[in-house]
Design a protein that fits this description.
The structure holds 2 protein chains of 2 kinds. By secondary structure, chain A is of the alpha+beta class. Chain A folds into 2 domains: 132 residues, PAS domain (Beta-Lactamase), CATH 3.30.450; 131 residues, Heat Shock Protein 90 (2-Layer Sandwich). In chain A, strands 2-1-5-4-3 form a 5-stranded antiparallel beta sheet, with helices on both faces. Chain A has a 5-stranded mixed beta sheet with strand order 7-9-10-12-11. In chain A, strands 6-8 form a two-stranded antiparallel ribbon. In chain A, a hairpin with a 5-residue loop joins β4 and β5. The longest helix of chain A is centred in the middle third of the chain and has 63 residues. A 6-stranded mixed beta sheet of chain B has the order 2-1-3-4-5-6, with helices on both faces. Chain B has one domain: Response regulator (Rossmann fold). Chain B is built from 5 helices and 6 strands; from the N terminus they run βαβαβαββαβα. In chain B, α1 crosses α4 and α2 packs parallel to α3. The longest helix of chain B is centred in the C-terminal third of the chain and has 17 residues. Chain B is globular, with a radius of gyration of 14 Å. Chain B is an alpha/beta fold. The chains are: A alpha+beta, B alpha/beta. At the A-B interface, α6, α7 and α8 of A face α1 and α4 of B.
């Protein structure tokens, strides 16, 4: 900011011999900081002084500059709002700093960090405006590039998010379609078995078909359960057992069933083998664990114990033969194989009366 | 029991429809017709005035079961029970249906559900909670007073 006493020196700049005797005037002439002075009292405030740095920056000769209002530096892409703020500050006699797009004589645009300060004389009358210009095109371009890069990044991110969402929607739709087909096919297999059972008179064949239906139904129940749950990766064993027992027990109204089910979850990949094994043990209990009137008591327990998942099915039937040895049928052979696959331990304990079948899975199998 | 209730089966899988026919009879009802697409289903419901319609969502003419069910329940006086592999895709109000059985179902679950629903229809209220495999719509659960029953284990 030029102090009031300096206005006289500003006057001295304008004389033809300016700078010869006055080191201050000489400095203003020679500085690489572009500077102009405009006459605030003359109509349309013409430029009355421009230093060499200004001429170098704008590309004009001194005689092309003097006598003109400095708005000739503005051009087609100059922000009208910036030009308006500048004009308003000049009218109000207020200092102002703006970054404004100007044009040099050859039409090349440059970003001008323009500072304008009013200069008053001893009476406080506004006599000059002194303006300094710095070419900040490089800085502006870098800023613009940053903004463009950021906008570009946002665009890329938005695009990628949209693509990911679409992929997820497609995946979900596909999953629903596959789920739907698997369920319908399991339903069809089940119905085929039921239909053939209805047409079959031979008792052994009927029993075999019914066993197969029971196995298919167990797998179907797994599938229904898996797709009902939020997490497709985990399988709730207790909920499955509740479903299974609920379904089987409806055809055994003289059987009291006691359920003690803690919620345990296993990996979905283990769901079908475990479900099949539990289904066989349950079928076995219904087949051998009831009295001659098809009545009795069963209990099913699911719990976590000593780092293992324990599934115990207890009947009140005649129990194991005295030797403890028995020849496993097809159903128990299946359970043995599945237990191996699950790295589970399968054992039968006498409960007098009855038998307890226990399947013990390692928790992190 | 008075006159057995009449049942319309709306299912595009022929084998499932035949098996459902057996289950309907075993539940003490009579099957009055079988439709494989929605237009025939609505037409048969209008003509035969069944007491119950068992309706699949995916029919021979596409996923039209929900609209057919709404029409049948609203205008032809039948109580609709959905039987679908797409339980999650059903509208919140179940399109006026009394409930849904998810596929794959077992023959036992369907028989049990039918017997339960026949009981509810005849008494006008439920005597127990619905059996496993059957989910009632909110409106029918309220109509039959299911929420006032004691929670069973």
């Amino acid at each position: 900011m030029i102090e009031r006493r300096d206005t006289f020196r500003a006057d001295s700049l304008l004389t033809p011999r300016a700078g010869i005797d006055d080191p201050f005037a000489a400095a203003v002439h020679a500085t690489r900081m572009s500077m102009i002075i405009a006459d605030a009292q003359a109509p349309d405030m013409p430029i009355v002084f421009a230093n060499d740095a200004f001429l170098a920056l704008s590309g004009y000769a001194r005689d092309e500059v003097l006598g003109r209002n400095c708005r000739f530096l503005q051009g087609p892409d100059t922000d009208p709002e910036m030009a308006r703020r500048l004009a308003q500050a000049v009218v109000e006699g207020a200092p102002i700093n703006v970054d404004i797009l100007n044009y040099s004589k050859d039409g090349k645009p440059f970003w001008n960090a323009l500072q304008i300060s009013p200069v008053r004389n001893a009476e406080g009358l506004l006599v000059y405006y002194i303006g300094s210009q710095i070419d900040v095109t490089a800085r502006k371009n870098a800023e613009d590039r940053l903004v463009r890069d950021r906008e570009g990044l946002v665009t890329v991110a938005t695009e990628q998010t949209r693509a990911a969402e679409q992929a997820l929607a497609e995946r979900t739709a596909l999953l629903h379609e596959v789920d739907h087909r698997v369920k319908n096919n399991l339903q069809l297999i089940g119905s085929l078995l039921v239909l053939q059972t209805r047409r079959t008179e031979d008792l052994q064949t009927r029993i075999a078909l019914e066993s197969m239906l029971s196995r298919v139904s167990a797998i179907a129940t797994v599938h229904r359960r898996l797709f009902q749950s939020r997490d497709l990766e985990r399988f709730d064993v207790a909920a499955f057992v509740r479903d299974l027992v609920g379904d089987v027990s409806s055809s055994h109204d003289k059987v009291a069933i006691d359920l003690d089910l803690q919620s345990i979850e296993i990996d979905a990949a283990q769901a079908a083998p475990l479900a099949l094994a539990v289904n066989e043990l349950l079928d076995n209990a219904f087949a051998h664990g009831l009295n001659e009137r098809r009545a009795g008591k069963l209990s099913v327990r699911v719990q976590r114990q000593n780092g293992h998942y324990l599934i115990a099915i207890c009947d009140g039937g005649p129990g194991l033969p005295p030797s403890g040895q028995f020849e496993p049928g097809f159903g128990l052979t299946i359970v043995g194989l599945l237990a191996q696959q699950l790295r589970a331990e399968l054992r039968f304990e006498p409960t007098n009366p009855g038998v307890r079948a226990i399947l013990e899975l390692p928790v992190n199998a | 029991m008075s006159n057995p209730l009449s049942v319309l089966i709306v299912e595009d899988e022929a084998l499932l429809a035949v098996e459902l026919g057996f289950l309907v009879r075993e539940a003490g009802c009579v099957e009055v017709g079988h439709a494989a697409d929605s237009a025939v289903a609505v037409q048969m419901a209008a003509q035969l005035k069944p007491d119950i319609a068992l309706v699949d969502v995916h029919l021979a003419d596409g996923p039209t079961g929900v609209d057919a069910a709404r029409e049948i329940a609203a205008h032809h006086g039948a109580m609709v029970l959905f039987m679908t592999a797409n339980v999650k895709r059903l509208p919140e109000d179940l399109a006026g249906a009394c409930g849904v059985i998810g596929k794959p179902y077992t023959d036992r679950a369907v028989r049990r559900a039918l017997i339960y629903l026949v009981g509810c229809l005849e008494r006008g209220c439920a005597d127990t909670h619905p059996p496993p495999g059957l989910t009632l719509s909110d409106s029918h659960a309220a109509r039959w007073g299911v929420h006032h029953l004691e929670k069973t284990a």
